[in-house]
Design goal:
The complex is a heterodimer of chains A (261) and B (1128). Chain A is of the alpha/beta class and 261 residues long. Chain A is built from eight helices and ten strands. Chain A has a single domain, classed as 3-Layer(aba) Sandwich (Rossmann fold). In chain A, helix 4 packs across helix 5. Chain B is an alpha/beta fold. Among the domains of chain B are: 61 residues, Arc Repressor Mutant, subunit A (Orthogonal Bundle); 171 residues, 2-Layer Sandwich (Chloramphenicol Acetyltransferase); 249 residues, Nonribosomal peptide synthetase, condensation domain (Chloramphenicol Acetyltransferase, 2-Layer Sandwich), CATH 3.30.559.30; 111 residues, Rossmann fold (3-Layer(aba) Sandwich), CATH 3.40.50.980; 98 residues, 2-Layer Sandwich (GMP Synthetase, Chain A, domain 3); 67 residues, Non-ribosomal Peptide Synthetase Peptidyl Carrier Protein, Chain A (Orthogonal Bundle). Classes of the chains: A alpha/beta (261), B alpha/beta (1128). Chain B: Keywords: Phosphopantetheine, Phosphoprotein.
Chain lengths: 261, 1128
């Protein structure tokens, strides 16, 4: 596991590289993770670490990274936006191609990261396969969902003590500037899916609602390239008491690792 | 495969190249051919081999293309969104990368010597465009994919220049210029400008017309078609009649569609399998370039034309024919041999373009009907030419049998590593054109010809196009046209290469049973120049005047001059001479004499040079031992050297318990009582002066025996080369166990200079070295690159009157750049221990910096250097070869290693004389200016994905980054094979990201030399010698989080049962003994269920908390002990 910084100028991005294990005589295989946003990223961090190790053991070069304004990358969370994260994903792909000597990379995206990964796959010609894990399908719905979670969280937290005032709108203490909110609201994954030429694995946790139905419909439209997997695991981006951070979604990890081959 | 079968295949191949279509009908051989394609010789050949030809055709199931059921090309209906052919897609892609590149412009010219009506001509051009859809093609990108639109109409402007009123003085030069300018006019795929036509009116009845077109819509045959059709259209209009041209039932886009459909049939699976196997691991061609290659291939091309005698062509053709091969195969064999020798590779891939107009209906249409085929040559074992010809024939026939697969599909199937610096699969093109001299494509008072000029671009590093007229007045002669990358090569290099090609070609037909690898590539003149003129280094000197006598002479002349300074102590020459004599007498008393050896193990100080000189005076050979070396190494050296005594001090004597010692400290009084005059010892030039041990490849050090004559020659050479600097004050920093210390100690003392001996701590302290240089007004300093960097990192600003020597390792370019302005003279010095310290030296000048060279100059006086091919012949200028050294510096050999001595110290026969030489194992090349370039170790070449890489070059590029303090590059084995890893230490506050480093490096290096990983360190760990301690470098590919091998299953019994329980609860597979429950996805609630299951199945109690931090094996062990708890 090699931590390092990539990116140019002010956009200094933190990445963790797991090299492929075992000598692979074939062309190098590589995968970049496109993380969720905010609290969902925090809760699922360990899951992606485990997935990275599994894939590295399976012969993949893996790159996980923090978007600008998130984690250990440069920038404040209030300085970030989706447009910038799109270029971060491009930087990560280019960097991993250089490190692994790969011509093409696969993308594994979760939640908002899945939508961004799908956009990258439409935009670029060097994306091999795509894994979309509980993707954000309709940006507005996602924001509504975050709003509800935040409200429930606030309700819980303020039962005994008031919350201090926040300078920036936030969801579960993660700043959500208006700019980012607007960009998230514009996400429409369904329209993107039909434009994708790559093979896609769509992983849906069973507890999802209407989005899953919509995606299932799409899956019927483009059956050849899309594999739909419904898993029983609890989604790792939810905070679940008393475990905090969610259990390890072994089924989902196993399905993804197996599909990646 | 029978001989007659192969002859038949060869005949069919040759005829196919001429556009001849042969098939079998009712047992009879039928053919269709362009006019004059089958000459009398061919008819005779066909008749003589009729049965074999029929057999081959029957086996292939060949039918005339028009009758091949289900494979006929059909006209398509659509005019837009049409697919491109495979070759068109590739050319389109290349244009996306480098828009407007001239690499793929082709052209032809027409000289018209009769009045020309330009209006009618322009109308004829319109007719031409109307006839051929290729000229009405527009290529557009839809969702990133290119498609063809055929426009109903398209025109090009006929640009006309009228010189008739003011004709140029030199008409032919004007014509050439006109043609060249046309060829160098960029075409634009994006704008749909894929062709241009220009005319110059020289006189009212003489015109010169050029037509330039992008290869994406035309090929060489298309240019002939253009002139033929244009001629007919012009005369049809002039005569007010219909043009009489063959009806075109198809257009190029029909072919493209057909090709795409055919590629998806199952029939291509066999071709794919063939190419995957044939081109697996195909290496890059590492041509010896004159200038370094950069990240992106160059588009500056050059062209050189040479001739090959008709007699040589005919003779080679005869040799080929008697062996059932074609002239093409013979020429290819010779060409691949030349490449093999120039590149030092015996696996050579070249490409050749094949025409793909075999199908019916394609002969008369304009389009790009070319498919490149990769031909891989096996030159291993230095085969005889006849054997090589056989290999080439078999491989070529096999390749051509599978040539239906479009080249793009071959590349996709083989999937070689890609880089922007090299085209995939082959980097050089080889073409044999067979012009039909009897068919003038534009009969009448017009002559069509290639444009006399070039595009100024180069498709490949180097291409060779051989054209041979098979009829007409030039029949039999051969023109060799080389297209080359002018950024990489000088024209003189290509000219030399042509001469080498001719030489090999002649040898191939004169002595076909000989090995072409043994044929000298250099002419007699070149050999004389390299072996004699460039080695004219003879200088008279007295071999019988050993070092200690030279010092004694200086002492007589300048007794009071300070000779040695160490710290605050110093000795003048008189004292040095006297004290060393005293020690010598003591050694003689102990038995030292000529033929014996004395070990010297001392800390750096005055005693060190005294002791070494004393041993020489006693007639013995000194064996320097570094006190910092591991005891085991010292023990091995002493064992091999069989020293009669060790000169040392009491603090170091402990490791010499088994040897006789002379303690310079404890026995100082006794030593001082010895005579201070020199002992009477007879020493000859061939007696051993010192025995220096170097690392052996097996790990056992080997002792190099250097004689007094060797040392005297070396010192004489240094005085000549360095001039007055030899007699200045020198700062000595090198351990005496490294032979270059010999220069530091003996050169000043034998030249009237002074030695300032730095102590051990100072030798690795840049600040201390700076102080010493200033304090003692040092005029001469020799150091390795590592030590020079210590000075620079300390901020040393230089010394204007300092002569600097850099050696021991290759001097990085950035170091040269930093030093050159800080010193008066900077010398890059080269030499193995086996030829006495240095054998070549180069005074570095500003022009050397940034040029990518690693010059080591020429041989020093009384030394001769040769660069040899593996066959032992002289390598031509520019070609890599092993550097061997002859002359007065060549040591006696290795002590106690007669086998190794015989292997490395050999007799070389060169230009009628025999010399004893030392084979260095280093690769070098001569340049045309008589200087040598160091390439690297012959046996230590690093190759990554087929590319030869000099790690030092990568390090130099990294070190030039302002933020990089130290850089070291090595090769590690990652998941995809070998990868370059850079270990970097940065200046504080200046660490760039990996992306920034990559961008920086790509501006300096080809991308295959850019490291895959960059590992940040506080400092690059070093050994005491100053070399990198590779054992302490972290391996970034080592899996740090996996503590066990996944393929080890749980042991039977409790482990197995526990693993089953975990699998059930975690819905997992393949749980190993090293796995942890929680890392696999378990959680607290599940851990309770594990405990319950263990109770149920094994009857044992298990604390669920045992699962927290323990592996399956550890938990099972705890269960075994009945009641596993934390930490057990």
């Amino acid at each position: 596991m090699t931590p390092f910084f990539f990116g140019e100028g002010q956009r200094r991005l933190f990445g963790v590289y797991d090299p492929a294990e075992g000598l692979n005589a074939k062309a190098p295989r590589a995968v970049v993770f496109c993380a969720p946003w905010g609290p969902e990223y925090t809760f699922s961090h360990g899951v992606f670490r485990r997935l990275a190790l599994n894939l590295a053991a399976g012969g993949y070069h893996v790159l996980r990274f923090d978007y600008f304004g998130a984690g250990d990358s440069a920038g404040e969370s209030t300085e970030a936006d989706l447009e910038g994260w799109r270029t971060d994903i491009d930087s990560a792909i280019d960097e991993l191609k250089s490190m692994a000597g790969a011509l093409r990379v696969s993308l594994i995206g979760a939640r908002i990261g899945a939508a961004l990964a799908a956009e990258a796959a439409v935009r670029r010609v060097d994306i091999d396969r795509l894994v979309l894990w509980d993707p954000v399908v309709v940006g507005r719905s996602y924001l509504d969902e975050l709003e509800l979670k935040h409200a429930a969280w606030v309700n819980e937290r303020t039962r005994y003590l008031p919350l201090p005032p926040a300078d920036t709108p936030n969801r579960l203490c993660h700043p959500l500037p208006a700019r980012i909110e607007q960009q998230m609201a514009a996400i429409d994954l369904a329209g993107l899916l039909t434009r994708l030429k790559q093979k896609i694995l769509l992983v849906l946790s069973e507890s999802r609602g209407t989005d899953a139905a919509a995606l299932g419909t799409i899956a019927n439209v483009i059956p050849n390239r899309l594999t739909l997997e419904r898993v029983r695991d609890r989604p790792p981006w939810r905070e679940d008491s008393p475990e905090f951070g969610g259990p390890m979604p072994v089924n989902a990890l196993g399905r993804i690792t197996a599909w990646m081959g | 495969m029978s001989h007659s079968y192969m002859i038949a295949e060869a005949i069919l191949l040759r005829l196919s190249a001429r556009g001849v279509d042969l098939w079998v009908e009712a047992g009879n051989l039928r053919f269709r051919a362009p006019r004059n394609a089958i000459d009398a010789d061919s008819r005779q050949e066909i008749a003589a081999n009729r049965d074999a030809i029929i057999s081959v055709l029957n086996e292939r199931g060949v039918q005339p293309a028009s009758q091949a059921a289900g494979e006929r090309i059909r006209p398509r209906a659509a005019a837009t969104g049409l697919p491109l052919s495979s070759v068109q897609k590739r050319l389109w892609f290349l244009d996306q990368i480098d828009p407007g590149s001239l690499r793929y412009s082709i052209g032809s010219s027409l000289r018209v010597r009769e009045p020309l009506d330009l209006d009618i001509f322009a109308a004829a051009v319109d007719d031409l465009f109307a006839r051929h859809e290729a000229f009405r093609t527009r290529i557009v990108a839809v969702d990133g994919e290119p498609v063809l639109d055929v426009l109903p109409r398209a025109r090009i402007a006929l640009d006309v220049v009228d010189l008739s009123s003011d004709p140029p003085t030199d008409v032919e030069e004007a014509v050439r210029t006109f043609g060249r300018e046309a060829l160098r006019t960029p075409l634009s795929m994006a704008e749909g400008k894929l062709a241009l036509m220009r005319a110059v009116r020289l006189t009212p009845s003489e015109y010169f017309i050029v037509f330039v077109v992008h290869h994406i819509i035309a090929d060489g045959r298309s240019l002939d078609i253009v002139w033929r059709d244009l001629h007919e259209f012009y005369h049809a209009r002039a005569e007010r009649r219909s043009a009489r041209l063959p009806l075109l039932k198809l257009q190029y886009s029909d072919f493209a569609s057909w090709e795409r459909n055919r590629a998806q049939t199952k029939g291509f699976a066999g071709h794919i399998a063939f190419w995957r196997e044939t081109l697996a691991q195909a290496p890059r061609l590492d041509l010896p370039v004159d200038r370094p290659r950069r990240a992106q291939g160059s588009s500056r091309g050059g062209r050189y034309c040479g001739h090959i005698d008709k007699a040589d062509v005919e003779a080679l053709k005869d040799v080929a024919r008697t062996r059932g091969a074609t002239l093409f195969m013979a020429l290819l064999a010779v060409w691949q041999t030349l490449l093999s020798r120039l590149c030092g590779q015996d696996d050579i891939v070249v490409g050749t373009p094949l025409a793909t107009r075999d199908e019916e209906g394609l002969a008369d249409i304009v389009g790009c009907f070319v498919n490149d085929v990769a031909l891989r040559g096996d030159l291993s074992g230095s085969p005889r030419f006849t054997e090589l010809l056989e290999r080439t024939k078999n491989r070529t026939l096999a390749a051509f049998r599978h040539s239906d697969l479009p080249f793009d599909m071959v590349v996709e199937a083989v999937n070689p590593p890609r880089t922007s610096s090299y085209p995939p699969l082959f980097q050089t093109l080889f073409t044999l054109m067979d012009f039909q001299g009897g068919e003038d494509p534009a009969p009448g008072s017009t002559v069509a010809a290639p444009i006399d000029g070039d595009t100024g671009a180069s498709r490949f590093d180097l291409s060779l196009e051989l054209s041979r007229a098979s009829a007409g007045p030039q029949a039999g002669a051969m023109l060799a046209a080389y297209e080359y990358d002018a950024v990489l090569f000088e024209e003189a290099t290509i000219e030399r290469l042509h001469g080498q090609f001719r030489r090999l070609l002649r040898a191939a037909h004169q002595t076909p049973e000989a090995r072409l690898h043994d044929v000298p590539l250099v002419s007699d003149d070149e050999a004389h120049r390299m072996a004699n003129d460039w080695n004219a280094t003879a200088h008279r000197f007295d071999r019988e005047r050993p070092v200690h006598r030279q010092i004694a002479e200086i002492a007589r002349q300048h007794p009071g001059t300070v000779a040695i300074r160490a710290g605050t102590a110093e000795l003048d020459f008189a004292a040095f001479d006297a004290q060393s004599n005293e020690i010598a007498h003591r050694l003689v008393g102990l038995g030292a004499k000529t033929g014996t050896r004395v070990g010297v193990c001392l800390e750096r100080g005055l005693n060190l040079p005294l002791a070494l000189a004393a041993v020489l005076k006693a007639g013995a050979a000194y064996v320097p031992l570094d006190p910092a070396h591991p005891v085991e190494r010292t023990r091995l050296i002493l064992e091999d050297a069989d020293v009669m005594c060790v000169l040392t001090t009491s603090d170091l004597a402990g490791q010499f318990a088994f040897a006789s010692v002379l303690l310079l400290d404890e026995q100082a009084t006794a030593i001082a009582a010895a005579p201070d005059r020199p002992p009477q010892v007879s020493i000859g030039a061939d007696d051993i002066a010192y025995l220096i041990y170097t690392s052996g490849s097996t790990g056992r050090p080997k002792g190099v025996e250097v004689t007094h004559g060797n040392l005297a020659a070396f010192l004489d050479a240094m005085r000549l080369k360095l001039g007055p600097a030899a007699g200045k004050t020198l700062l000595a920093v090198t351990t005496p166990a490294f032979d270059i210390a010999g220069l530091e100690l003996w050169l000043p003392l034998t030249s009237g200079g002074r030695v300032v001996l730095a102590d051990s701590a100072d030798t690795v302290d840049g600040s201390a070295l700076t102080s010493l240089i200033d304090a003692h007004d040092i005029g001469l300093f020799q150091a390795t690159p590592t030590t020079w960097r210590l000075l620079l990192e300390d901020g040393w600003q230089g010394k204007a009157d300092l002569t600097a020597l850099c050696g021991g390792e290759a001097m990085p370019v950035d170091l040269a750049e930093a030093l050159i302005d800080r010193v008066e003279n900077l010398w890059n010095v080269y030499g193995p221990t086996e030829t006495t310290v240095w054998s070549a030296m180069h005074r570095v000048v500003a022009a050397d910096v940034g040029g990518g060279r690693r010059p080591i100059g020429g041989p020093i006086p009384n030394t001769r250097i040769y660069v040899l091919e593996p066959s032992g012949t002289l390598a031509p200028v520019g070609a890599p070869g092993e550097l061997v050294i002859a002359g007065d510096g060549v040591a006696r050999g290795y002590r106690n290693r007669p086998d190794l001595t015989a292997e490395r110290f050999v007799d070389l026969r060169i230009l009628g004389r025999t010399e004893r030489v030392y084979r260095t194992g280093d690769l070098a090349r001569w340049r045309a200016d008589a200087t040598l370039d160091f390439i690297g170790r012959r046996d230590g070449q690093i190759k990554i994905r087929g590319f030869r890489i000099e790690l030092g070059e990568v390090e130099a590029a990294l070190s030039s980054h302002p933020a990089v303090r130290q850089a070291y590059v090595s090769v590690s084995n990652g998941g995809s094979g070998s990868a370059l890893v850079a270990y970097l230490a940065f200046w504080l506050g200046g660490e760039p990201t990996t992306s920034e480093l990559r961008r920086y490096l790509r501006a300096k290096l080809p991308d295959y030399m850019v490291p895959a990983l960059f590992v940040t360190l506080e400092a690059v760990p070093l050994l005491p010698s100053g070399k990198v301690d590779r054992a302490r470098l972290p391996n970034p590919f080592r899996a740090g989080t996996r503590a066990h091998r996944r393929d080890e299953p749980p042991a039977d019994g409790i482990e197995r049962t526990l693993a089953d329980i975990w699998c059930e609860l975690l819905d997992a597979r393949d749980i190993g003994p090293g796995d942890n429950f929680f890392e696999l996805g378990g959680h607290s609630l599940l851990s309770l269920r594990v405990a319950a299951a263990v109770q149920r199945r094994l009857g044992s109690r298990m604390d669920p908390r045992a699962l927290y931090f323990q592996s399956l094996r550890e938990v099972a062990a705890g269960i075994q002990r009945n009641g596993a708890g934390l930490g057990q």
